[in-house]
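[09:14] KT: can someone run the structure on this one? pasting the chain below
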Amino acid sequence: MSDPIVVQDDGAVRIIRLNRPEKKNALTQPMYAAITRALHEAQANDAIRCLMIIGTPGVFSAGADIGEFLESAQAGGLRSHTLDFLKALVHNQKPLVAAVGGLAVGIGTTMLFHCDYVVAAAEATFTTPFLKLALIPEAASSLLAPMRMGYARAFSMLVMGRPLTAAQACDAGLVNEVVGGAEVEAAAMKAAQEIAALPAGAVAVSRRLMRGHIDAVARQIDTEVAHFKDRLTSDEARAAFTTFLARKK
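[09:31] RB: done, structure tokens below
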């Protein structure tokens, strides 16, 4: 069985590949931990000048693994590796490129707000169905999505759960570039290599200036987590989970 997270360095670019296609790259606790470790290790490695996260053909990530998520719901909160991953995204100091070859659900979409450059396949879709389970948005998307996309589009996606096509995501400012499905990885690598070739110090300072709200983003994650825990034990969430599980049978 292949590793669900594959990390390899190609010159100055660290590639973090979600590699669980049989489950549409749904993220488990060990996967969160592996990505977090790859991000942390890159911070201390001057040879790594850009990071790239990519899924498998046709799928970026279906979000959190549903089995683990339901266990977390019963326990009343997010598991520690999930929170560690979110904080690692916030405090990541290296430019981050994403290659979205298809489906991006939940955290598979919200993590993209922490990326500096996103390449999407023309057939990719982006959806955040949190409220269908009576929950709330996470990964600081409740702050970052309105900042990036404007309140109206953020409300439609985060609260109403309406999906975005790749073209709509590009128009909204979530995606930088839309290409054919077979070209996603190459286009993302080209962008990552272009970034890696720039003066690293100037890139770092520019990125810090442009992302000057990092402390607010970290606080927003903590606030979201507190509300998320409350929502998990709410009557609305219990009813939504019961309905969801009935559909799964």
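[09:33] KT: thanks! Residues 5-200 form a domain with the 2-enoyl-CoA Hydratase; Chain A, domain 1 fold (CATH 3.90.226.10).
[09:34] RB: yep, looked fine to me
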